[in-house]
Structure formats: C-alpha cells, structure tokens
Amino acid sequence: MFSEPAVTAFSSLKPFKPSFVREWENITLKWNYTIDGSIGQALFSYATDNSVIAAKFGDGDVTVASEYQERFRADISNTLAQLTILTVQRSDGGRYRFSLTSTMVDAITDEVELKVHCK
Fold first, then answer.
1. Which has fewest Cβ within 10 Å: 8, 69, 72, 118?
2. Contacts of 36 (CB under 8 A, 6+ apart)
3. Alpha-carbon span 44 to 61, nearest angstrom
4. What are the residues whose beta carbons fall under 8 Å from the beta carbon of 26, sequence distance 6 or more?
5. Average pLDDT of adjacent 10-residue blocks, the chain of 119 residues
6. Is the backbone peptide bond immediately before 18 cis, with ω within 30 degrees of 0?
7. Looking at domain 10-117, which of 2.60.40.10, 3.40.50.2300, 3.50.50.60, 2.40.128.110 is its CATH number?
8. Residue 81 and residue 110: Cα distance in Å, rounded?
9. CB neighbours of residue 11 within 10 Å
10. DSSP the chain
11. What are the angstrom distances between the C-alpha of 115 and each of 14, 30, 50, 110, 118?
12. 83, 72 contact by CB (below 8 A)
C-alpha cells in the first residue's frame, strides 16, 4: 500500500514582498515550510549574483560565510528558516533568496526584496 508524500511548500509565514527596514536597524526575514523527509541542503543567498550568505547541509550546523559573519545570523530547522541582518546598511538592500532541498523531493525556493530606508 502506497501513501501520498507530504506536500513540500512554504506555509503562511514568509517575508513581506518587498520588506522594508530603516538603515541602522535590525531585520529578520522568516520562512516556514513543510517538507517530506529531512533537509538535504538549505541556503540563504543574494538573488542577484547567487553569492551564498549561509548554508546548512543535512543535520549539520548552519554556517555563515566569513564575509557575512559580523552582521548576519542564520537559523534553519526542518520547519523554519530565519536570516537576521544586524545594523542594516544601505548596501544590504537587494533581493535575498532562501532555497531548500529535502532528502525526498525537489527544492523549494522563495525570494524577497529588501528595501533600506535611509535618512
């Protein structure tokens, strides 16, 4: 007897599109989702050039790329992903992507544009 796999998709919690923040404030972009299986790979990246900000592989810890470690924090679980930017600067504006591949199905991906309001 076969059962239908759980749907892999983003749930109701996703960042506003676009998301706004004032320069020098902090922001946390959050996604929740359901996956069938466990995390194979999860990435936060800049959508414009695909540079990886943070990554998680399997059950390992989230690793933030060295050039982002000072102001970026990332947390990724089997149901929730959060990217926090501390003391947002004008140069942090742009499109951010979260993508996740589970051990059972294809990737799910979502993008959000972050707009930084400057004084």
1. 118
2. 5, 6, 7, 8, 102, 104, 105
3. 14
4. 84, 85, 86, 87, 88
5. 46 77 95 85 92 95 97 94 96 94 81 92
6. yes
7. 2.60.40.10
8. 11
9. 11
10. ---PPPP-EE-S----SSEEEETTS-EEEEEEEE-SS-EEEEEEEETTT--EEEEEETTS--EE-GGGTTTEEEEE-SSEEEEEESS--GGG-EEEEEEEEESSS-EEEEEEEEEEE--
11. 16, 16, 18, 17, 10
12. yes
Tokens coding 40: 């194979």
Question: Which residue matches tokens 């599109």?
Answer: 17
83 token code pair? 């990217």
Hey, what are 84's tokens?
A: 């926090």
